[in-house]
Write a structure and sequence with these properties.
Structural class: alpha/beta
Radius of gyration: 20 Å
Largest sheet: 4 strands, parallel
Number of helices: 9
Helix content: 55-70%
Distance between the termini: 41 Å
Strand content: 5-15%
Number of strands: 4
Order of helices and strands: EHEEHEHHHHHHH
Length: about 280
Amino acid sequence: MKSAVFLYNTQSGKCKIGHCTDSICTVFRAYGYEIVPQPIDFEANPFDGNEQIDLMVVAGGDGTVNYVVNAMRNKGLDIPLGQMAEATVRMVTDSVNAYVWQDLDAAQRVIEYDDVVDDLFDEVKEVLMHQMDTDPQIHEHVMDLLMIAKYYERIGDHAENVADAARQRKEEGVSISKEAQKELGDMLEMVNKIIRYAVEMFAKSDETHMQEIITLEDQVDEKERELQKKHVERLTKGECSPEAGMIFSDIVSGLERVADHATNIAFAITTEEEMDEGKTN
């Protein structure tokens, strides 16, 4: 059995993460890890005594992740880091805020984090492929985890595209209406709710929020069509520029795809029959 440590910042997630450690660790134990939860101590190196572990799972904000990465480097270690999925919510939120409020610092954070997510995906893929070679019987579980990791990577890619649009808007002086700002905020709230439900469902193998996710995904699809129609109407009336309209349309489409990826993560704990039944109810 491989060894792992779940390192978490007790102040993250509105101080609720400490109540979820058992359910999170259960997921990793189901996939062959002997995992120990450990609150982070910023006065110590978390790898002291953990030099031989196979996996370090980190839950926290940018400061927590940076601290752990630097601590790993100081120990001369090369251990895959499982960064908790809340990072995807942060990236999507930062990217839309960067566009609406022309916050280039937020845009830069998203771009830098996307590189981290891409690197982590490569590391996760390598670890999972090695596990499958070692034990072919876990092939189905490995492929499920690999696909979920790919969904997270795709969400990060969409967030990066919005961050690039934010920089373009700033550089070219593109303006957007208050109506468009509110529309993006409303859609972002719906998409983030799907992501949070999906992460919780996968972490706990609990289908409690499945119907909410299905309903929200339908609402996001409808919202995407509604906002695209309004965008065309504003463009026709000369209430927005073609440049602003094109970027707005791309962001709305990207958020709809993010919702699709998050929904697929939730469906990863269901059977194909349950998926078909849920989509037809």
